[in-house]
Every structure is written in C-alpha cells, then in structure tokens.
Amino acid sequence: MSAVLAAVLQVLLLVLLLALVVPLLGRYLAHLFTAPTHLRFERATYRLLRVDPDADQHWRSYAFSVLGFSLVSVLFLFVFGRVQQWLPLDIGMSALPADGAWNTAVSFATNTNWQWYSGEAAIGHLMQMAGLAVQNFVSAGVGLAVAAAFARGLARTSAGGRVGNFWSDLVRVVLRLLLPASFVAALVLVALGVVQNLSGPRGVTTLDGGTQQVTGGPVASQEAIKEIGTNGGGFYNANSSHPFENPTALSNLLEIFLLLVIPFAMAWAFGVIVRDRRQGGAVMAVMGSLWLVSVGLLTWAELAGHGTAPSLAGAAMEGKETRFGEAASALFAASTTATSTGSVNAMHDSLTAPGGGVAIVNMLLGEVAPGGVGAGLYGMLMLAVVTVFLAGLMVGRTPEYLGHKIGQREIVVVALYILTMPVLVLAGVAIGLTAPAGLAGLQESGSHGLSEALYAVASASNNNGSAFAGLATGTPFWNTLLGLCMLLGRFVPIVLVLALAGRFAAQHRVPVGAGTLPTHRPLFVILLSGVTVIVVGLTFVPVLALGPIAESLS
Amino acid sequence: MLVPDLIYVLTTLVAFALLALLVGALGRRLDDADAGVAPTGPAKSHDTEPAGR
C-alpha cells in the first residue's frame, strides 16, 4: 500500500469514527450541562465542597469561582512538587526546583501540560497520580465548564447576566464524563499493550549487551485522560512515541480519536444548548474544514520532504517512529497542535520546515480547529461574533448573533480576547530572544532558532504544551516566562469569555429580521473560516516569514 | 530555599489578584451598561443601512 493511500485511509477511518460518536456524545454533553437534577454522588461532592449547585451564578461569581479554584490548584501542585521526595511512591525522585515546580503547577492547572522535565526522571508516582493526573481531569473540566457557560449565555435572554453554576458544571463533567470515559479508555489501552503498574526504575540488559534503566508506572490511566482532556503531558519524556505509552498503530489511531472527540462533540452540544442544531453544525464544519486542511498540508509536507536523506528514505523520516511512519505522525502532529493537546508521537523539531510551520500556525490560530476541550468551542464562538460584526460592516447587515446584539461594548470585549494571545506570543518571543538568559537556552541559530522559540511561546500562550525541542527551557528564565504565558493565556481569555456570556445573558432577544445574517448556512461557514485564518493568522505573518517560511525557502 | 518559593507564591497571588481586578473592571463597564442594550423589537432602520450612508 502506498504511503498516500495509507494516509487517506486512516483519515477516512478517523472521520468515520468521529461521525459515529460525536452526535451521541454531543447530545450527552448538552444533557449534562442542562439537566436540572443532581446524582447522589454529586450531591455528596457538593456537600464536601460546601457549595449550592442550584445557585444560578452571575458571570462575575462564575469567573471568581473559576479563578479561585484554579489558584488553589496551582498552589497545591506547586507545594506537591516541592515536597514529593518526602511522600510515598517517590521512587527516589527529589524535589523539583522552585521555578520548575511553579512552571509544572501552572502548566497542569491551565490544561497546557508543558513539560520542561523528563517525566520518568523527575516525577514520583504519587505526584503523577494525585497531582498531575487530578489536574488533567479538573483543568479539562474547567475548560468545558466555561464553554458551557458561554453557550448558556448565548441561549438565554433577559437572565440578568446569570450563566449557570461553575461547581455543578465542573463536578458533572468530571464525574459523569471524564472519569468513566478515561476508565474505559485506560482498560482498552492496557489491552493494546500500554503498561499500568507501580514499578520503579528497573535495570535491563539490551540485545547488544548494554544496560538501560526502564521505568514502569501508572501509564495507561494517565494516557487516557491525557488525550481525552486534551492535556498532553506524557508519563515519559518521549510522550506518545514511547512504546509503553503508544505501542501499536491501533493505539495510535485510538489516541488521535480520543483527543479529537470531545472538542468536536462540544460543537454539537452547543447546537443543542442554543436549540438550533444547525448553529452547532456550522461551527463544527469550520472546525473540521480547518483541521482537514492542516492534516493535508502537514502530511504533504512530510511525504514530499526535500533533501538527500528524505529522498533516499522516501519521506522525511527523521525523528519519526518507524512503527507509525510519516503519515500517522503527520496526522498526530496536526491533530495534537490543532486541539491544544500537546502530546506527540514524533519529534516536532524534525518536521520539515513547512510541516513545522503548519504545526505552529495551528496553535497561532488560537486552538480553535477544533481546539481544546471547551476552549476550542468558546474560541470559535468569539471568532463567530467577530465574523458577524465584520459581515455587518461589509454588507450593512445588523450585527447580531443568535438573537443578541453585537454593540460597541461586546466588540471591545471580543477585541481584547483576540489581542491577548498575539500580545503574549510576540512579546514573549521578543523577550526570550533579547534577554541573555533567554538566548542562553537557544541551541539553534537563524530561522530555525526563531521557529523553536516561537513554537515554545506559542505552545505556552495557547495552552498546547507540545515542544519543538532544541530550546533548553528548564531554566528559571524560561520556566518563569512560559509559566506567565500559560497563566495569562488561559485565564485572561476565560474572564473575557465569561464577561461576554454574562452580557449576552442580560440582553433582551433581538428578533430575526430581514437584516439578520444567517449563521447556519455555508456562506457563514466560509466567512468564519476566512476570518479565523485572516484576522488571527495574518497577525503572525512577519514572524512566520522570518521563521518557518524563510527556512522552507533556504 | 524559601526565598524562591515565596517569590513564586507571590507571583501566583499577584497574577490572580490582577485577574480578579479585570473581572471587577469588566463588571463595572458591562453590567452598568445594561440599560443601553437594545430593547425588544425589530432592528432599527439605521442598523441595516450600509456603512457610510
């Protein structure tokens, strides 16, 4: 079978699986966010947390709950990293340095899962299970909760700025979705060969007589939520290219499916929540189109890799697992960078220059195609508001979205949202490449060096978490800079999204009129796709020209 | 050993305090302006006119 045919078939199989599961999961998610009754074990959790799950929170109260919960998460994980050597199951690991513990705490509490360390050489089993894995669940839950609040804000009118209950959203999504789904996925992964034990480092003799330390651990349970929650932090440094995390082509396809399924299902759930499934379909069509274009471009770039070595190998095989090949690596790379997951099954630094450029652009689009769990939906909806506004300016249509007027104050909030990420990325790269401490970590010069720094800051600011490598980021300077990018890149947009949700929920409904732009038709899908690429993508053309584009042409 | 820990804890607290201030500032700007939201009813004619007219 030719590589091209294999690439096409695996994408078709993946699309088929998603088409089967997304509608069912989308309906379930919508039910989860709108059902009035609480289950018994949920009530027990609310009593433990001492919260009223039936209180319909004003958006400010909702935002304070998100921030308070995340602050506690960061501080708890920071302390965990500093004292892990004194805790059970430390398997001989020492305390993380202060800058590293803080970076890790922020990274996992923001659903980024950027890892400056090698998991198997720095983190004990208890911190993996009770620290990092817990954050994998709840940070994903926070993203889904915020997206649900935004969908509710669009579905409601004259509700006085009330957007739901954060604690109810968080508890439900963790207990009714993420935990059971991860449990089943972990069992399937174990059946496919992923390890699950509490073993420490073990010395083994290799076939050529050498010795090697091999670490076991609770890998499958971490692997499942790593993909389902679009977290991405691997148990091992090699992430999903390690045979203990991702042993076969089947486990590889399953992991890609897991990281895509909830982001797409959230678009479906959005349509159900606003009582117009066509709206969810339009959002999903934009997400799916951009994802397919990115998969196509990245696969083409890797299969057609130029140069002596790729020509001899038949494709750009450097940095890729021969178990998967270039097509499965390209599909994984495109999907993980388009979903803010950040897990990898190949060395992204070894992607061809245009292939690496596609991965960077995926992140710079703001992680909306289909984006992270929850974050992808609210990011795309913010762009939909921009699209309605721009279309209104161009053709004289009334700027309104789903019965909500887009006025000056609404568009100011959206503009702040759109500007936050570019400011973080461009200022972060500028600081990183001008400060001596930042330059000290750079291991490449020229356009590739710029690409490495751009990739790292874009990954942190968009809460992706994958690394290009080639940049020594385990230093106080980079840990602090990237930690701030992760923190602000996560919570500034969340605050703005909730503010707009509250604003919409407070408005009176504007009836559909002759001047209303239909937001469920193919024309809107094309407009929204164009706005996503142009408004967000073009912000970065200069830096992309100096990085991956210059490298491609050299 | 404790000084770097303290610096990072304070950095976290300051960052979240600033985010809380952002919530408050947005609340004042947006929630006080609810009265300015268009009332129920059809879009006004000037809303549908092309820009520049």
Automatic annotation (TrEMBL), chain A:
What does the annotation say about its assembly with partners? The system is composed of three essential subunits: KdpA, KdpB and KdpC.
Query: What is the role of this chain?
Result: Part of the high-affinity ATP-driven potassium transport (or Kdp) system, which catalyzes the hydrolysis of ATP coupled with the electrogenic transport of potassium into the cytoplasm. This subunit binds the extracellular potassium ions and delivers the ions to the membrane domain of KdpB through an intramembrane tunnel.
The UniProt transmembrane annotation reads 62-80, 173-195, 256-274, 281-301, 373-393, 414-435, 481-502, 523-545
Q: One GO molecular-function annotation for this sequence?
A: potassium ion binding
Q: How does it sit in the membrane?
A: Multi-pass membrane protein
What family is it from?
Answer: Belongs to the KdpA family.
Q: Which organism is it from?
A: Marmoricola endophyticus
What does UniProt give as GO cellular component?
Answer: plasma membrane
**Protein name (database record):** Potassium-transporting ATPase potassium-binding subunit
Q: Which Pfam families match?
A: KdpA (PF03814)
Subcellular location(s) of the protein: Cell membrane
Q: Which UniProt keywords apply?
A: Cell membrane, Ion transport, Membrane, Potassium, Potassium transport, Transmembrane, Transmembrane helix, Transport
TrEMBL record, chain B:
Query: Where is the chain membrane-spanning?
Result: 6-26
Q: Which domain of life is it from?
A: Bacteria
Renumbered to this chain, the Basic and acidic residues biased-composition regions fall at: 44-53
The annotated region (Disordered) lies at 34-53
Keywords in alphabetical order: Membrane, Transmembrane, Transmembrane helix
Q: Does the keyword Membrane apply?
A: yes
Protein known as: Uncharacterized protein
From what organism does this protein derive? Marmoricola endophyticus
Give the classification, highest ranks.
Bacteria, Bacillati, Actinomycetota, Actinomycetes, Propionibacteriales
